[in-house]
Design a protein that fits this description.
By secondary structure, this protein is mostly beta strands. The chain contains 2 helices and 8 strands; from the N terminus they run ββαβββαβββ.
Amino acid sequence: MSVRRAGGAIQKFDSKDVQAGRGPGASLRIANNDEIFVDLAPFYYIYGYVGHTGEFPLLRPLTVQQAISIGGGLATLGSEWRIKIKRKSGNGETYEVPASLDDQVEAGDTIIVSERIF
């Protein structure tokens, strides 16, 4: 989070510290004409055979298993062995990797849960 004062000075604060009331942002005073910018929270997507598909905030480190649990768990036909992650590389290209339930989820990941074979 950053605050731009009416005079043009910019101050940066960790939004978690401001919410917790600690650090230099603990006594933050907002004045008229100040502008506040809050970064978007990182997110990930779940797609396929899960309880709820969609976009979810990545507020703490998660494994694939925890992310699927947040998405309502596996659907009846979902396979815990046929999971893939679509991820963007540093140059912006998307690539797909097989995933296990213990893999870490990264910001921007799309977790794809495929159908069981039997």
